Amino acid sequence: MENKMYEHEALASSDVELSSSSEMDGLHDPMPRHRRQHRWPPRHYVVYAILALSNILFFGLYWKARRSGEQCVRPKLIYCDVVAPAAEAIEYVPKRLMRDLKNNPFTGEPNDEPTEEFDKAWAHLLEPMTIKISADELSHLPDDSIAMQDGSGYIAELTVYHELHCIKRIRRHFHQQRYYGNMTEDEHIREETHIDHCLEYWREAAICRGDVTLATFQWLEGKPFSRVYSDHECVNFEKLDTWARSRMVDTKDLSVLAGRPSE
Predict the structure, then answer these.
(1) What is the DSSP code string of 185-202?
(2) Cα–Cα nearest to 127, from 7, 263, 242, 3
(3) Are 61 and 211 in contact (CB under 8 A)?
């Protein structure tokens, strides 16, 4: 009897609640408990996604670099992110520089009259030394400039023309009696300072460009001399000069400039 009594002993109330709860969970939850945890996608899918995104990123960077290389003109570090003012006028061409001293209006002794070929050639070459740029073009430069009186823009200069001005000035320095025959002592001091400026301007320009074009040597009178000519990659200066002339400003008439201080 005792055995039978133990066999039919009632379950504790806590056991009944636990059993009922487990049964209810099983009835109302269609997904087994061990399958309800969050599942990550297979690892190889993640790897594929990362590779695809990296390829897209690298292609974008390559495309940007390629377009920058196509659109950029020297100086690239300054104008790579914006359109250079003279970008449409820049074209590079192969050219042999001969340094010819004959039949050249820029070399030799100046003629007796200032209006002759030598001075005319230099005056014409330097005509577009001062040009007009827009407010937007000026905004990409580190410094302000003088505005046009009519509000149409600002004055600036292409460095190549300042370099040419310095060469002209040095050539004139060789012929001071012709060009500056009656200089005072103060004018002579200013002339020497100007020449020092031009030589330094020219020296820094040569170092800045660092042209690595090679010139070969030959024997002359028992000594090795480099040949006077060499082959270069040059800007098409005629095209650039045409662009500059389309914007040139004659600063001899100072009334075209705004903000002139009173003397």
Answers:
(1) HHHHHHHHHHHHHHHHHH
(2) 242
(3) no
Tell me the pLDDT tens digit for each residue of 74-122. Answer: 556 556 556 678 888 989 999 999 999 888 889 888 876 656 788 999 9
Compute the distance between CA of residue 172 and CA of residue 123 in angstroms, rounded to an integer.
12
Reported as a single tens digit per residue, the pLDDT across 42-80 is 776 777 778 788 778 776 766 655 554 444 555 565 565
**Domain enclosing residue 109, as ranges:** 91-210+232-256
Flag whether 138 is in a domain: yes
Determine, yes or no, domain membership for 247: yes
Contact 137, 85 (CB under 8 A): yes
Give the DSSP H/E element, type plus range, for residue 93.
Answer: strand 92-97
Question: 207 in helix, strand or coil?
Answer: helix
Tens digit of each residue's pLDDT (9 = 90 or more) over 219-238:
999 999 999 999 999 999 99
Give the C-alpha separation, 218 to 225, whole Å.
5
- For tokens 């039949």, the residue is 103
Residue 55 lies in a domain: no
Determine, yes or no, domain membership for 112: yes
Q: How many domains does the chain have?
A: 1
